[in-house]
């Protein structure tokens, strides 16, 4: 009987492993087929991501609709999150969840109340550290949206900084070939993904709708606080006013940006050296000394020349 039970268990786990193997193969084949269909039908992967992002925003909107009820309270209780600060964060983060300032302020209060309720439930259930949860859960609920939106802002600006040199080089090459700026931007952004594409796609849409070019440039500056990106847009505004060739502007900005990045890497490397020395001095060196001392003590106590063998 025991042998049958063991055999059944072995067969069960074998079937589970076989199922996982075939599932992995199926998912891999499905991904290859989707990529092939996208290549054949010329479906833009960026548009798929945008649709997925919009669906996620709709789901999040349904989940947070009750936050609107606390919007007025949230706008009055605005510690670390005044309305103009929230508006700037949402604008610079790209606002992927389609939040308004009022809903964001209400979301803070809603999460604060949820945190307070969970703290009370933890206290009633007698969970460990429940008295601390009663205090910290509301604070975490209030600060969580602020931390997440600020992290999203920082992440987005870093992505712009990463893609900007290649983008400027590509646009500069197109401009030198005789393509106009608007056509060059429309063509080049098709090969980029993320914030760079979002920003210049919106810029092109504003130009198509009749927005003055300088105003569209100013809107780009408002939506991004990346120093390199702002330097590029300001150079474009200046070049437009002074009549400087745009291709030359892109080329010079790309070279300056790469030089700035090299200097930043050198600066980071110089800052890393003292940190490595600090870790070596206070962590690696003491551990190494302890290991050597331990081996010496073990050799003295348990080795062939142990002190116990002298007696």
From TrEMBL:
Ranges annotated as spanning the membrane: 6-24, 107-126, 132-149, 276-302
Alphabetical UniProt keywords: Cell membrane, Membrane, Transmembrane, Transmembrane helix
Occurrences of domain Type II secretion system protein GspF (ranges): 167-292
A family per Pfam: T2SSF
The keyword Coiled coil is annotated on this UniProt entry: no
Superkingdom classification of source: Bacteria
Subcellular location: Cell membrane
Entry's Gene Ontology cellular component terms: plasma membrane
Coiled coil: none
Protein topology in the membrane: Multi-pass membrane protein
Predominant subcellular localization, coarse grouping: membrane
Protein name per its UniProtKB record: Tight adherence protein C
């Amino acid at each position: 009987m025991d042998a049958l039970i063991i055999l059944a268990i072995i067969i069960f786990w074998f079937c589970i492993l076989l199922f996982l193997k075939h599932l992995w193969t199926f998912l891999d084949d499905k991904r290859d087929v989707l990529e092939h269909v996208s290549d054949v039908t010329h479906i833009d992967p960026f548009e798929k991501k945008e649709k997925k992002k919009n669906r996620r925003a709709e789901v999040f909107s349904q989940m947070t609709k009750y936050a609107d009820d606390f919007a007025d309270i949230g706008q009055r209780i605005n510690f670390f999150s005044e309305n103009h600060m929230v508006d700037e964060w949402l604008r610079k983060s790209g606002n992927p969840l389609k939040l308004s300032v009022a809903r964001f302020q209400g979301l803070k209060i809603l999460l604060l109340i949820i945190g307070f309720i969970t703290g009370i439930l933890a206290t009633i259930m007698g969970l460990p550290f429940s008295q601390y949860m009663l205090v910290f859960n509301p604070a975490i609920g209030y600060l969580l949206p602020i931390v997440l939106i600020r992290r999203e802002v920082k992440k987005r600006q870093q992505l712009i900084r990463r893609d900007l040199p290649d983008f400027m080089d590509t646009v500069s090459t197109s401009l030198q070939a005789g393509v106009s700026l608007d056509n060059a931007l429309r063509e080049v952004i098709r090969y980029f993904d993320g914030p760079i594409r979002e920003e210049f796609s919106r810029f092109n849409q504003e130009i198509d709708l009749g927005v003055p070019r300088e105003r569209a440039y100013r809107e780009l500056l408002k939506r991004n606080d990346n120093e390199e990106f702002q330097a590029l847009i300001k150079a474009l505004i200046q070049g437009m006013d002074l009549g400087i060739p745009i291709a030359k502007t892109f080329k010079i900005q790309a070279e300056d940006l790469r030089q700035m990045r090299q200097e930043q890497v050198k600066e980071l490397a110089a800052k890393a050296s003292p940190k490595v020395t600090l870790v070596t001095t206070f962590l690696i060196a003491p551990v190494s000394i302890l290991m050597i001392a331990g081996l010496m003590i073990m050799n003295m106590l348990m080795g062939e020349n142990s002190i116990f063998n002298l007696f």
